């Protein structure tokens, strides 16, 4: 599903994937080679995605991290992440797209999505869940099949039932998703996830740690100490990680000049931007672009 040539990376809203008569705040359906919305790859969304593969193979690239696609793979995408798919002809599975509003509408805890380990993960990348038993594959398949059938019924309360099935799906995923001892959600972990979510929303503003701390209503020291304790990295590391991914994306997939990229990401001037990029990568932006073009 790779696109050829350089284009700006599109951002798709969920209504881009809406079929006639279906809902605009979630979409669930069979995923195969016949599923064609004429989308450009790579792209990003402003909603959440769960992709469950039951047959076929390939490669899923999420924010420059590559993951193997095989039967029993479940991939999770948070808003803002860019992904690209390289799929075999026999690919088959299910896909569930949903907005935060759909999931949280009846939830007392509005942080519920952030409490799941696979959305806005604390570790770099977005590792999939690989399930291996026939029983687990059947459990997940049955949930998707039931949700698709309910969507087709289109009763007044169908969204409520589909929301309940999404809850069941996410709970099963949470139970099976690999987690380290001590990964239980607490105020510190929630703060770091909110920080990562905010970076996704505000990275183009090129904010400082102090600015992010103000948005999160904490002191810069508290934010930095919490990030360091839970990730082993600094707050600046997380900001730089996101900025670096975005710079690389623009250098690879857009026709923008280095100066235009610097301006778009709110750097004071091209010289500082180039020094920043070289410090993090060991290459100038032009060297990185030339190397990427030759690959």
Automatic annotation (TrEMBL):
Q: Name one GO molecular function term.
A: DNA-binding transcription factor activity
Q: Which UniProt keywords apply?
A: DNA-binding, Transcription, Transcription regulation
- Alphabetical list of InterPro entries matching this protein: AraC-bd, Homeodomain-like_sf, HTH-like, HTH_AraC, RmlC-like_jellyroll, Tscrpt_reg_AraC-type_HTH
Q: Where is the HTH araC/xylS-type domain?
A: 193-291
Q: Which Pfam families match?
A: AraC_binding, HTH_18
In Swiss-Prot or TrEMBL terms, this protein is called AraC family transcriptional regulator
Which species is listed as the source?
Sporocytophaga myxococcoides
């Amino acid at each position: 599903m790779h696109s050829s040539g350089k284009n700006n990376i599109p951002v798709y809203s969920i209504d881009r994937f809406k079929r006639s008569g279906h809902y605009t705040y979630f979409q669930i359906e069979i995923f195969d080679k016949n599923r064609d919305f004429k989308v450009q790859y790579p792209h990003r969304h402003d909603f959440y995605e769960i992709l469950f593969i039951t047959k076929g193979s390939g490669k899923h690239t999420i924010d420059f991290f590559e993951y193997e696609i095989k039967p029993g793979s479940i991939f999770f995408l948070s808003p803002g992440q860019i992904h690209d798919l390289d799929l075999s002809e026999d690919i088959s599975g299910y896909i569930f797209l949903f907005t935060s509003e759909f999931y949280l509408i009846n939830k007392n805890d509005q942080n519920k999505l952030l409490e799941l380990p696979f959305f806005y993960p604390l570790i770099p990348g977005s590792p999939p869940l690989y399930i291996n038993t026939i029983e687990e594959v059947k459990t997940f398949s049955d949930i998707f099949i039931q949700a698709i059938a309910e969507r087709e019924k289109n009763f007044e309360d169908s969204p409520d039932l589909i929301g309940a099935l999404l809850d069941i799906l996410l709970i099963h995923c949470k139970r099976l998703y690999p987690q380290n001892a001590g990964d239980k959600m607490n105020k510190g972990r929630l703060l770091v996830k909110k920080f990562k979510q905010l970076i996704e929303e505000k990275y183009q503003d090129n904010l400082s740690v102090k600015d992010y701390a103000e948005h999160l209503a904490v002191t810069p020291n508290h934010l930095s100490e919490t990030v360091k304790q839970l990730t082993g990295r600094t707050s600046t590391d997380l900001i730089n990680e996101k900025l670096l991914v975005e710079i690389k994306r623009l250098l690879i997939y857009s026709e923008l000049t280095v100066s235009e990229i610097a301006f778009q990401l709110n750097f004071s001037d091209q010289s500082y931007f180039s020094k920043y990029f070289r410090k993090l990568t060991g290459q100038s932006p032009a060297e990185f672009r030339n190397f990427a073009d030759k690959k």
